[in-house]
Amino acid sequence: MLAFMSDARDRLVEVTARIFAEAGYHGTTTRRIAQEADVNEVTLFRHFGSKEALIREALRTAALRTRASLDLDSTDPAAELHRWALAAFHHFYERKDLVRRVMGEMVERPEIAPSVCEDTNAECSELERFFTRLQERGLARGDVRARAAAGMLLGALISNALWRDFLPQVPEPAENVRLYVDLVLKGIGLDTAAPASKRSGGRTAGNPKP
C-alpha cells in the first residue's frame, strides 16, 4: 500500500512538470494531471492539498534531478570545471521548456519563481565556493570576485541551454561550454595550458593538500 502511494505521488509530480512545461499554469488542471497520472483527483488532493502545492513540488523536484557537484579540491581544477559545466548545461537543456515556461509565468505568478530560482542559486553558490577554494589554494588571483565569476559562467550556460535551438550557427555544446569555461578560468588567472600537476601545486590524487 505504501509503495503504491509513493508511486502515485511520483507519477503526479512527474506528470505535473511535463504538463506545466506544455500548457502553463492555467492549462495544468488537476483533472488532466489525475488522468495522465492514472489516479483520481481525490488522491491528488490527499497527497498535495492543492494544485498550487503540487506545481511547486513538481518544479522543485524537476530542478533537483541530476544536478552535478564540484570537487573543490580536484587535482585538475580546469578539467573538473569543464566536466561540471557540461553536466550543468545538460541539466538546464533537458529542462529548457519547463524553465522557459516558468520565466514566462513569473510576472503573473511570482510565487512559482523560487522553485526554479533556488536551483540556479544553488548552482551559483557551488561555483562561488569552487572559485573561492581556488583562491585559497593559490591557483586564482586573490582580487577576483568569486560570486561575479560564478554568475558570469552560469548565466552563459543557462542562456545557451535555453536559446541555442533558436540560433542557427551555435557551436556544439561541448565546444561552447569549453569556450565559456576557458574564458572564465583565464579571467580568474588559472593557466589552463599548464600541466595538471602544476595547476594543483604539484599535488597528485594520492597526495592531497592537508
Number of strands: 0
How much helix, percentage-wise, in residues? 55-70%
Helix/strand structural class: mainly alpha
End-to-end C-alpha gap: 50 Å
Shape: elongated
* Low-pLDDT ranges: 201-210
The largest sheet is: none
Order of helices and strands: HHHHHHHHHH
Can you describe this structure?
The chain has 210 residues and is mostly helical. It has helices at 2-27, 30-37, 41-48, 51-64, 77-93, 96-105, 113-136, 146-163, 173-188, 196-199. Helices cover 69% and strands 0% of the residues. The N and C termini lie far apart (50 Å).
Strand and helix map with partners:
Blueprint: H1 2-27, H2 30-37, H3 41-48, H4 51-64, H5 77-93, H6 96-105, H7 113-136, H8 146-163, H9 173-188, H10 196-199
Give a nutshell description of this structure.
Helix content is 69%, strand content 0%.
Keywords:
210 residues, mainly alpha, 69% helix
